[in-house]
Amino acid sequence: MGPSGTTPKRLIVLCDGTWQNSVSGERFSYPTNVTRFSRALSQFGVNEDKQKVPQIIYYQPGVGIRGLTDKFTGGVYGAGLSANVRAAYGFLAHNYNPGDQIYFFGYSRGAYTARAIAGLITSMGLLTKRGMDQFGDVYQEYYRNKKDRNGEKEPNVTKLRRIANGDLHHNAEYSVEIIGVWDTVGFH
Length: 188
What we know:
- It holds the Pfam family T6SS_Tle1-like_cat.
- The chain has 188 residues and is an alpha/beta fold.
- The protein has a domain at 10-120 and 175-182.
- 38% of the residues lie in helices and 19% in strands.
- The chain is built from six helices and seven strands, in the order E-H-E-E-H-H-E-H-E-H-H-E-E.
- It has a five-stranded mixed β-sheet with strand order 2-3-1-4-7, sandwiched between helices. It has a two-stranded antiparallel sheet with strand order 5-6.
- Strand 2 and strand 3 form a beta hairpin.
- Helix 3 crosses helix 4 and helix 5 (135-148) packs antiparallel against helix 6 (157-163).
- The longest helix has 16 residues, at 109-124.
- The model is unreliable at 70-79 (pLDDT under 50).
């Protein structure tokens, strides 16, 4: 049992790249590596003690998958990345319990999404469901602070936690186990 009295689980977030999704429907399209990986994962993994561990998998399509305008703005400007960060972060906030492990995988702008969320969690923690009401302000401050510090990557954690109003999962900042990303493309 985990600290919260629940069975610890793995929350696995898989973020696809620009113009990529698992069901494009195009005649000669093939599943991306992120899609293949998400489909290959089982509902249960095995921990170091050979015990079954439930795995909850969250697959997120890339930016630029909805129509011609979205393809252009998502591809050129990364439009939609903030919404993807919020959605995947929200998945974690709603499903996390103390003792859970968090895994991230991503490609291209999906790699950026995974890294952004992992950075936010390891810096200040993970908002609770109720805390998601403050996500917009927390996210904005996190990136404003990084820009204002001339390349220094350390955010003002005290300020972020104050903005979060204390609505954070206890010790979640230590739950990120894996960040598996390749060919990261950002937009900030």
